[in-house]
Amino acid sequence: MVQAGANIGVLILSQLYSEAIFFLYIASYTKPILQMVEKQKFELEYIIRTSPKVLYTRLSSADGLAQWFADDVNINDGIFTFIWEGAGQEAKKIKEKAGKFIRFHWLDDDDDCYFEFRLEIDEITSEVALIITDFAEEDEIDESKQLWDSQVNSLMQLLGS
After folding, report:
1. Which of 44, 77, 110, 119 has its CA 20 to 30 A from that of 133?
2. Domain count, the chain
3. d(Cα 130, Cα 116) in Å, to the nearest integer?
4. Domain co-membership, 30 together with 104
């Protein structure tokens, strides 16, 4: 009886081991497939009728961003926490040239991805252009552009532009 019990135990362990190996085998092949979905870089340009200084404050400060981009924004140790409907998403400011551009990286996103607000002033007309650079999966680019259009529309209303 002891021998039969030991054989069943070995059989169960053997089955569990086989299932674990199978899972690792499948995982090793699906992970590269999942990683192959690369995000595409895209840019949007908006003409904003306001001074570059006023606009840049709305793009780079917690108070400014909370007025149009998120419900609330907190900064702690260089990490911006953007809050929408009670849920937060964290980003780190990775590059900035005051008055010209600011670049953020979502902490839960791919290392190469970022979103950036850049100001360009036309030398002839003095128009202020806001250029937004972002990344999205190919099948989500249109949706991302619509979201940015909506957000920037809120910004323009705030500025009276």
Report:
1. 77
2. 2
3. 10
4. no
